[in-house]
């Protein structure tokens, strides 16, 4: 009998990382190891290891301690140059015989783009089997410490978009695709654009969330600079400007069938997400 695939899950306590670890543990043919700054366990993983992108020694020690077959890679958050931290780790993993890696990218970020986009080709060049997941905006952003959650609580969705649509996706669906990509040999190497089943305008988002919660949520169309100024009250100025620009230029009106094609089931709708996570919205 073949031994389980050992997967080192970076960002293992985050939105997708914890879900990936849990799904891998449930499969029975994989052994996830949580990699996090605390070194603790999460998501049902049997073990954890200390891992900090800002401490290269800890990342190499994590490789030595776990000897993984595969990696789930999440870039250091809010780092404008993630390759500087991830490059040495990717090279070290390759030298130690790691054959497979799945990188969490982003739908708006293409291969070769500055920042996260520079990591895509590094992963493709280093590993025999690889995938770059490029999801759209997370549904979880409406219930976490994200600015969208603050807007929902305030009852006003501010947007700099005129007619843009967003294909919000559940982090659980991203994790389900990642779990298959980390353990199955049926997927070809490449980038996987992941979306939810709907392309929603800001008005449709407000109506959907408000309808399920029984609240009135209105949409306030503002300029990109005004949105950046509003976001800067609770976020670093650079990040606020980047988010405002992404919102103003959003054109994500194309849904894909990737989630269903890879996992065998359709992705969750926003209405279903709000119903299922109602308690989180009521906090």
Explain what this protein looks like in three dimensions.
There is one protein chain. The protein has 283 residues and is of the alpha/beta class. The protein folds into two domains: 131 residues, Rossmann fold, CATH 3.40.50.720; 108 residues, UDP-galactose 4-epimerase, domain 1 (Alpha-Beta Complex), CATH 3.90.25.10. It is built from twelve helices and nine strands. The strands form two sheets. It has a seven-stranded parallel beta sheet, sandwiched between helices. The longest helix has 14 residues. The protein starts with a strand and ends with a helix. The model has no long low-confidence stretch (mean pLDDT 91).
Percent of sequence in beta strands: 15-25%
What ranges have pLDDT less than 50 throughout 5 or more consecutive residues? none
Please name the CATH topology of the largest domain: Rossmann fold
Query: Mind telling me the CATH superfamily name of the largest domain?
Result: NAD(P)-binding Rossmann-like Domain
Class of secondary structure makeup: alpha/beta
Helix content: 40-55%
How many domains is the backbone divided into? 2
Q: Label the CATH architecture of the largest domain.
A: 3-Layer(aba) Sandwich
Please work out how many helical segments DSSP would assign.
Answer: 12
**Quick one: CATH class of the largest domain?**
Alpha Beta
Q: What is the H/E string?
A: EHEEHEHEHEHEHEHEHHHHH
Query: How far from one another are the termini?
Result: 47 Å
Q: Major sheet, described briefly?
A: 7 strands, parallel
**Shape designation:** globular
Q: How would you write the strand order of the largest sheet?
A: 3-2-1-4-5-6-8
| Strand runs, count | 9
């Amino acid at each position: 009998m073949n031994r389980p695939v050992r997967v080192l899950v970076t960002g293992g306590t985050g939105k997708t990382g914890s879900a990936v670890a849990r799904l891998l543990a449930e499969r029975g043919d994989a052994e996830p190891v949580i990699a996090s700054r605390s070194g603790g366990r999460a998501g049902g993983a049997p073990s954890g290891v200390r891992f900090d992108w800002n401490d290269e020694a800890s990342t190499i020690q994590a490789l030595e301690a776990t000897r993984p077959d595969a990696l789930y890679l999440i870039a250091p958050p809010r780092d404008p140059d993630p390759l500087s931290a991830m490059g040495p780790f990717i090279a070290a993993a390759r030298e130690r015989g790691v054959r497979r890696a799945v990188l969490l990218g982003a739908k708006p970020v293409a291969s070769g783009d500055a920042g996260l986009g520079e990591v895509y080709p590094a992963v493709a060049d280093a590993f025999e089997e690889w995938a770059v997941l490029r999801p759209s905006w997370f549904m979880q952003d409406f219930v976490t410490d994200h600015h969208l959650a603050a807007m929902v609580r305030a009852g006003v969705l501010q947007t700099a978009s005129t007619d843009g649509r967003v294909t919000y996706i559940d982090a659980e669906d991203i994790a389900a695709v990642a779990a298959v990509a980390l353990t199955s040999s049926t997927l070809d190497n490449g980038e996987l654009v992941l979306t939810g089943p709907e392309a929603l305008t800001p008005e449709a988002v407000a109506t959907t969330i408000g309808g399920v919660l029984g609240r009135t949520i209105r949409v306030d169309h503002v300029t990109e600079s005004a949105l950046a100024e509003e976001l800067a009250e609770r976020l670093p100025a650079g990040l606020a400007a980047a988010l405002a620009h992404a919102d103003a230029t959003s054109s994500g009106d194309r849904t894909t069938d990737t989630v269903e094609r890879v996992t065998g089931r359709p992705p969750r709708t926003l209405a279903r997400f709000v119903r299922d996570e109602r308690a989180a919205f009521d906090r």
